[in-house]
Amino acid sequence: MSENTQKATIWLTQEAFDKLKHELEHLAGPGRAEVTQRIAAARDEGDLKENGGYHAAREEQGQQEARIRQLEDMLRRAEVGEAPANTDEVAPGTQVTIAFDGDESDTDTFLLGSRELLGLDDAVDDTNVYSPQSPLGVAILGKSTGDSVTYEAPNGKPINVTIVKVEPFKG
Fold first, then answer.
1. What pLDDT shows up at residue 161?
2. Per-residue b/e over 22-47, b at no fewer than 16 CB within 10 Å?
3. What is the value of pTM for the model shown?
4. Is residue 89 part of a domain?
């Protein structure tokens, strides 16, 4: 797999893929029709300059079309799989706990993958997510509990981390 293809990959579980596909089907079908009807109804009310309903419906249409394009792109780049059952090493779909500079009191726990792996459930919005293509993700991918790695932060500073725990993500 080329580096560009790897960077473009979005890791999804089958469940997350299905939810996103269902959302796309709704927005591109009935959702589009509903917004178009609201625009037509508001247009029939007359003067468009001062028609708040018309402008709100047009704004909603723009946001909906942007979401449709985003979903189409994500689904096109998606690689579907299940969260790894074997958590001997860090892989997309695992929940990882790292300690900064080996200090077990300074830790961070996150999902290695994409936010879309979380599905559409608002209950998991507070979950931190790091991409496998991020500097941290690249550094820890394939590593095991107890391994220490150094990666470069966006500001150029090297950061040392030790992998404390790797487990399957249970959203």
1. 95
2. ebbeebbeebeebbeebbeebeeeee
3. 0.59
4. no
